[in-house]
Design a protein that fits this description.
Layout (H helix, E strand, L loop, with lengths): L4 E6 L10 E7 L6 H9 L4 H18 L7 E2 L8 E6 L2 E8 L3 E9 L9 H22 L3 E3 L4 E3 L2 E3 L1
Parallel strand pairs: 2-6
Antiparallel strand pairs: 1-2, 1-9, 3-4, 4-5, 5-6, 7-8
Amino acid sequence: MNSQGFEIVEFIKHKSNHKSSFYAIKLDSETKSEADAFFDKFENTKKEEIEILSGKIDYMVTKRGCLESFFELKESKIDDNICCLKAGKLRLYCLRYSKVAVILGGGDFKDVNTYQESEDLNKHVKLLQVIYALIDERIKDKEIIITENSITGKLKFNL
């Protein structure tokens, strides 16, 4: 990770009637969150897939919550919370906390059998592994609290 830290930021503005919340990882060295950069990168070239992913996220936020059936688990389970949203060959990697909240990382086009075979996809998963460990530590220390539909607490991290 080239940055000095990161922050968990709201990806979709949370409302009290939402079934779940979506957040994103924003590295200190970047102007956009990882998820915003992903959507911007593919908005013109993979428009249909981007619309599918956006629709899935909206449906989970407003109607169903982050049910496991919306996500694909990583090919090799290292951390149970790391999974991805997929549409066609696009993969958006994330951390899922029950049906309550998702923290979006980055993603890319998958044109290989496993994410480990792609330098770009592997980079996104490795970053989420580091971030997951840091978040998990703060959850255990009660510095981050996962409520019935949001994440609160100390969401800024220095490395």
